Amino acid sequence: MIFNPASGRSRGGAIASAVQAGLTTQGIEARLYTTSQPQDAVSIASQVAPEVDILVAIGGDGTVNEVVNGLANAPRESRPCLGIVPAGTVNVLALDLRLPFRVDQACHVIAGGKTLSLDLGKVNERRFLLMMGAGIDALTVRNIDPQAKRRFKELAFVGTGLRSGLAEQPALFRVLVEGTEYQVTYFVAGNSRYYGGRFGITPHADITDGLLDFLLFTGTTRASLAAFWLGVPSGLHLRNRHVVYLLSTRAEITPLDPEVPVWYQTDGELAGCLPAVVEIEPHAVDVIVP
Predict the structure, then answer these.
(1) Alpha helices (H) in 56-135, listed in sequence order
(2) Residues 135, 276: one domain?
(3) Whole-prediction pTM
(4) Could you report the per-residue pLDDT of 26-79, keeping only the tens digit for each?
(5) Do both 109 and 135 map to the same domain?
(6) Element (H, E) at 21
(7) Looking at the domain assignment, is residue 272 inside a domain?
């Protein structure tokens, strides 16, 4: 079990101990590993994956993302199953998979051992379970207030997206999908239907279909971006005339001006700057589900 002690409003340690006790009661030998800094979970997961039957991530989507990236370093045939105990500020994957948030119920699910084979997205060798986003999307992640995130959850992303978009002119960049090039200011590759909470930027995405859902926003004005973000909670953003929605397995993304950095994020964490290649790895990880 890999846990982030800062998750769950710094209750990660207590939650992890409760999970360990719960799994022991179910007859499962459980070892605890603590993260102390970013990317620790990647290293731990890579190290212990060949030795265990199940790797349990205790924390939010960021912790799960790191554990998955560690798992992906192991050969596909020898990867352990992934168990998840939601304990973070935002637990989008738990919502999509309908995972229980109560420790006793989560332990029961893990002990049950029922698995679902999920796709993994990949961008420049970094994996993601939920989404990859570039442009104003990554600026939103970079600028979001942690206190607002804890208090307002998904609405904090909308508010920050509006402020970030109105504060500066969004940079244009290129997206190439199946031979067609688009110039956009915002791009999301969705593996999951949810984004930042219960609303969906890519609401038709299926984490098991072997495809990524691409949302491309071609608007260039602050007014068009504001209209887009205001439509997201209700799903009306898909009717926006500046939105292109595609399903594919690969996209190539490059900045128009190499001197202007365009950030991208994976599963809600800043991951780097363009250029990037986004693709899908079908049925790459087996996750324990109810």
Answers:
(1) 61-71, 92-97, 103-112
(2) yes
(3) 0.87
(4) 999 999 999 989 899 999 999 999 999 999 999 989 899 999 999 998 888 889
(5) no
(6) helix 12-25
(7) yes
